[in-house]
Amino acid sequence: ASIMSNDSSSPAPSGGGECDESELWYFAYGANTNVFQLQSKGVVPRESHAAVLRGWRMVFGLKPFMRLMGHMANITPDPSGHVHGVLHRFSHEHMAIIDKMEGEGSTYRREVFDVETYNGMHVKAHAYVCPGPPDRLLEGPPSERYRTIILTGARHHQLHADHVTWLEGVETVKMEHNKDRPKPQMKEDKIWTREQVAASGNHFCLMNYVFDGSALPPMVLKRFKSDLGPPAEYFLLMMIPRDQNTPPAMPKSFQEFSQPQLDFVDMMLEQFEKDHPIVGTCPLPL
Questions:
Q1: What is the dihedral of CA 281, 228, 87, 16, to 10 degrees?
Q2: 197 and 90 Cβ atoms separated by less than 8 Å
Q3: How far, in Å, CA of 83 to CA of 167, rounded?
Q4: Backbone phi, psi, residue 70, to 5°
Q5: What is the pTM assigned to this prediction?
Q6: Beta partners for 204?
Q7: Looking at residue 117, what DSSP letter applies?
Q8: pLDDT digits over 171-219, tens only?
Q9: Interhelix angle for 144-156 vs 161-169, to 10°?
Q10: Which of 95, 133, 193, 217 counts the most CB atoms within 10 A of its CB?
């Protein structure tokens, strides 16, 4: 049976698959197959196409930095394998945003591969692969949240039915959320300003709590310390599964968070309460 979609009538990449100096092709096989998820990161592909990478196999084989994240997608060499995904045309500015979000150079390494669109055009495209270290290359279940994001991307771009079926059958871990849980125990009861937390090396704010993030990898701590943009609460909103029915605009202020968004942030807060010491309180974000 063909590993391509039964429907090969989708438009071919523009320009014969060639990019000018301001653009590049990026092959996504994980969460970035989902264009609605990309919108939450401020990234909009100029065009997108279903495609396959031969000689590799997709695995949930990247041990998570944080227990609540579940295992992440990676690709591993396999002479008889193939990876279904989405080929995006990006500006270099948007690729730089994805590099920061994916931890290019620390978690993943961006390499160039020969990728084939479902209508048979070969394109040189960038994709992320994590080469190690070996103690990070451990297969395990992804989070239900992460699998949902990838499934939405696969269905939206009409990736091969066998790939969608495989994703649907992947075992996942689901985060529990107890809205009525008691207030967490605090290691310290210091009152911080958000500016003080930002200036502190190993601390970050989430809602009105200050956490000791010294056990987090530097790249993850940097994200939660807002070094890459808005406060941690906004970063967490990018992790909510999104689809064609999700409003593309992000809230402009914390007061604009919807109840489902607040519930998601609170669910993540509950996970952090289990893994990281709380060393004080701080004001809610603006």
A1: 160
A2: no
A3: 12
A4: 75, 170
A5: 0.87
A6: 211
A7: E
A8: 999 888 899 999 888 888 899 998 898 888 899 989 889 999 998 877 7
A9: 170
A10: 95
Q: Which amino acid is at 2?
A: S
Query: Strand pairing of 209-212 and 278-281?
Result: antiparallel
Alpha-carbon distance of 116 to 183, in angstroms, equals: 52
130-161 tens-digit pLDDT: 988 887 888 999 999 999 999 999 999 999 99
Q: Pull the structure tokens for residue 197.
A: 């937390």
Tokens standing for residue 41: 């990161």
The tokens 């394998």 sit on which residue?
A: 81
Backbone angles phi, psi at 96, to 5 degrees: -65, -35
Among 156, 141, 134, which residue's Cα sits nearest to residue 36? 156
State the Cα–Cα distance between residues 236 and 246, nearest whole angstrom.
16
- Please answer whether residues 105 and 31 qualify as being in contact, where contact means their C-beta atoms are separated by less than 8 angstroms: no
Which two three-digit tokens encode residue 285? Answer: 């974000």
Whether 140 contacts 149, CB under 8 Å: no
| Rounded Cα distance, 284 and 206, in Å | 8
Based on DSSP, count helices (H) and strands (E) in the chain, helices before strands: 8, 9
179-to-47, 119, 255, 266, 270 alpha-carbon distances in Å? 41, 48, 19, 8, 9
How many CA atoms within 13 Å lie on the side-chain side of 91? 7
**Of 206, 228, 170, nearest to 280 (Cα)?**
206
Q: How do strand 190-191 and strand 23-28 relate by DSSP bridges?
A: unpaired
Residue 52's nearest CA partner among 87, 79, 15 is 87
Closest CA to 76 of 63, 91, 62: 62
